[in-house]
Design brief:
Distance between the termini of chain A: 67 Å
Number of helices of chain A: 8
CATH topology of the largest domain in chain B: Rossmann fold
Shape of chain A: elongated
CATH class of the largest domain in chain B: Alpha Beta
Keywords (chain B): Ligase
CATH architecture of the largest domain in chain B: 3-Layer(aba) Sandwich
InterPro entries (chain B): AMP-dep_synth/lig_dom, ANL_N_sf, CapK_Type1_Caps_Biosynth
Number of helices of chain B: 15
Pfam families (chain B): AMP-binding
Protein name (chain B): Phenylacetate--CoA ligase family protein
Structural class of chain A: mainly alpha
Number of strands of chain A: 0
Helix content of chain A: 55-70%
Radius of gyration of chain A: 23 Å
Strand content of chain B: 15-25%
Strand order of the largest sheet of chain B: 4-5-3-6-7-8-9-10-14-13-12-11
Number of domains of chain B: 2
Oligomer: heterodimer
GO molecular function, one term (chain B): ligase activity
Radius of gyration of chain B: 23 Å
Chain lengths: 183, 470
């Protein structure tokens, strides 16, 4: 594995204008990409066809991922295909709901890093010069899903704070509870 | 409330000597609260018997329990281990309670049972401490235990009145109720001020008629009761809210011929300590579930036994207000060790407590500063205040306020001329002058700082000067 910045740079430098995302065959791309990582029978690569995907953001994200994995110089070792399948069918659509349009991956260095780290995390890969703890920590800090969860919590906290203040004001005017003394 | 309780309470409320009741308040105890208080009582009595009070280990457990429930605790404890860095945990201040209360209340708390006991208070920074009826209910066993130490056996019967709370204010709520945690024993809060009675003689008759086991109140109210010639002899007197001087304690003891218990309790913490029966200038920590530290005001470090500093509280049983190293603003010293009175919980000596201050009208009548506080607190533009009487008819009211209160506007005077002023200030001045009597002059100073500190709210430098010159 190389350092994370290598893969981030690949995403940021992806030749967007050279690809027609609408017509490209995702199945063919993944077949080619995985040929470099796995020997043996690969067809069909997945039990479902990726060509049926119509969401433009998801399609483009697949292309970006195959680009990184296909690169013979990337030093990405062999990995578990099952893990990749889960990542592509479950995580990617979720990420694409939060990060869109897909060009965000290629324009924003942090988003590019998020895409790479989410892939590596799913495949249990660790970039060079990083410990597992550092990797997880960094990933959490840029993970859109995590950020959304925190934002959501903050929003809930703000709503609760408003509710507390409203109730306190109301309770101040309501009946208190009797005590024998005063303070 | 059972039928017997209701009948007994009705008799008290409709007594021919009853004051003009103006409020209706119950203890708001439900079945689960009742069980909670019973459990608390059992643990508390056992702890007193076995001398097991909350130490630092107990405080750490309390903090750990709350750090994932209250976002305030989480923020305060960020990067700190409660065990190893206890003394580095930032203090909770009065300002935190005023401004960050929404973060302090644990996230999972249901707000529906919250109560806010309006505080009359003697400090200039109001704190609306949220509370739970069950935590307020715990006052019952705590107070009862202190009177038991003075030979009083509380009667848990609807026919008896456990306590009557006295106060002397121009305006306050007065009510009668029963306490379900005391077997339906009655309780009444009355105002000694003549305006709240049909006939002045009714006060004595009412108290004699309900014959409470104890009288509670602040030193000011007891002093007024003495001056009014109230000759009722309770089994014990429970003095709270203000500093009880040795001199007044002796006078009260002589007049009412009963033990006098001095009680240290804050709205935001609940009961903290009560006076030792063997040496009343010392107080014992009362509950088993609070942890006290004495902290140096200069260095912020914890003082060792026998050194004076600010009293800091951790723990408590108010589910809406878990206390994390809360700086009370009061000063004192703490001693550990056995005591001849039999209560071996740490002893606390309070210093410079809340001294009672009275204002004087020019005709010699006194004005309870709590009446001043009532006017200032209900004014939404005033955040913090201080009132000083510096001459016979002259007062200065220092306030920190909203911009609206300080902004100068044009005012049309009766003569038709236009002048610069502020109607909010003018209204406040006239309200205070009406309370402080004919000819009084109140100057409003809007430069009082809002710094979250416990400030002296009432000063009577005129009386101090008189005392010095006499």
């Amino acid at each position: 594995m190389l350092e994370i910045r290598y893969y981030v740079k690949q995403i940021l430098n992806f030749p967007i204008l050279s690809v027609d995302f609408k017509t490209v065959s995702l199945d063919a791309l993944w077949f080619d990409a995985l040929m470099t990582k796995r020997k043996g029978i690969l067809s069909p690569v997945f039990d479902r066809s990726l060509n049926k995907i119509t969401n433009p953001d998801t399609r483009a994200t697949h292309v970006l991922l195959t680009y990184v994995i296909f690169d013979p110089d990337s030093k990405i070792p062999e990995f578990d295909l099952k893990k990749l399948t889960i990542f592509l069918f479950e995580t990617v659509p979720e990420l694409c709901k939060l990060v869109h349009p897909y060009t965000e991956w290629t324009k924003d260095a942090e988003r590019a890093e998020e895409l790479i780290r989410s892939l590596f995390q799913a495949l249990d890969l660790l970039p060079a010069n990083e410990t597992k703890v550092y990797f997880e920590d960094r990933y959490r800090s840029i993970d859109s899903r995590e950020r959304l969860r925190i934002l959501d919590q903050t929003k809930k906290a703000q709503e609760r704070a408003k509710e507390i203040l409203r109730q306190m004001k109301q309770k101040e005017e309501e009946e208190a509870a009797s005590k024998y003394n005063r303070e | 409330m059972s039928e017997v309780w209701a009948v007994e309470l009705e008799k008290l409320i409709h007594s021919q000597y009853a004051p003009f009741w103006n409020a209706s308040i119950g203890d708001r105890i439900e079945r689960e609260d009742f069980d909670f208080v019973q459990d608390f009582k059992n643990t508390f009595y056992q702890s007193k018997k076995k001398h097991t009070y909350m130490d630092r280990t107990g405080a750490i457990q309390f903090i750990r329990k709350n750090q994932f429930r209250s976002s305030f605790f989480r923020t305060q404890l960020e990067g700190l281990s409660p065990d190893d860095d206890f003394e580095a945990i930032p203090f909770t201040t009065r300002e935190d309670l005023q401004l960050r209360i929404t973060e302090i209340i644990p996230n999972d708390m249901d707000l529906s049972r919250m109560v806010v006991n309006p505080t009359s208070g003697t400090t200039g920074l109001p704190i609306l401490a949220p509370n739970h009826p069950r935590a307020v209910g715990c006052y019952v066993p705590l107070i009862e235990w202190t009177v038991e130490q003075n030979g009083v056996v509380p009667k848990h019967s609807p026919q008896s009145t456990f306590a009557v709370q006295l106060c002397y204010q121009e305006k306050t709520i007065v009510y009668a109720t029963t306490h379900s945690l005391a077997g339906g024993a009655k309780f009444a809060k009355i105002n000694l001020h003549p305006l709240t009675w049909k006939n002045p003689s009714d006060i004595k008759n009412f108290i004699n008629e309900c014959s409470p086991q104890i009288l509670t109140g602040d030193p000011y109210a007891f002093e007024m009761a003495m001056n009014m010639g109230l000759d009722y002899k309770p089994e014990v007197i429970h003095s709270t809210a203000l500093e009880l001087t040795e001199n007044l304690r002796d006078k009260l003891k002589e007049h009412f011929q009963c033990p006098i218990i001095n009680f240290y309790s804050l709205n935001e913490t609940g009961p903290i300590a009560y006076s030792c029966s063997a040496n009343p200038s010392w107080m014992h920590i009362l509950p088993h579930d609070i942890y006290l530290e004495i902290v140096s005001n200069e260095t912020g470090e914890v003082e060792s036994t026998g050194n004076v500093g600010e009293i800091v509280v951790t723990g408590g049983r108010n589910p809406y207000l878990p206390l994390l190293r809360y700086k009370t603003g009061d000063r004192g010293e703490l001693h550990y060790g056995r005591c001849t009175c039999g209560d071996h919980f740490p002893r606390l000596r309070l210093l410079s407590g809340r001294k009672p201050v009275y204002f004087m009208k020019s005709n010699g009548e006194t004005v309870n500063p709590i009446d001043v506080a009532r006017i200032l607190r209900r004014n939404p533009h005033i955040y913090q205040f201080q009132m000083e009487q510096f001459a016979k008819k002259k007062f200065i009211c220092r306030v920190s306020t909203s911009n609206e209160f300080t902004k100068l506007t044009e005012i049309n005077e009766e003569s038709g001329s236009i002048t610069q002023g502020n109607t909010l200030q003018i209204q406040l001045r006239s309200e205070l002058e009406s309370l402080l009597g004919f000819g009084s002059e109140v100057q409003i100073d809007t430069k009082f700082p809002l710094d979250g500190k416990k400030q002296i709210a009432f000063i009577n430098s005129y009386l101090d000067t008189l005392e010095k010159t006499q």
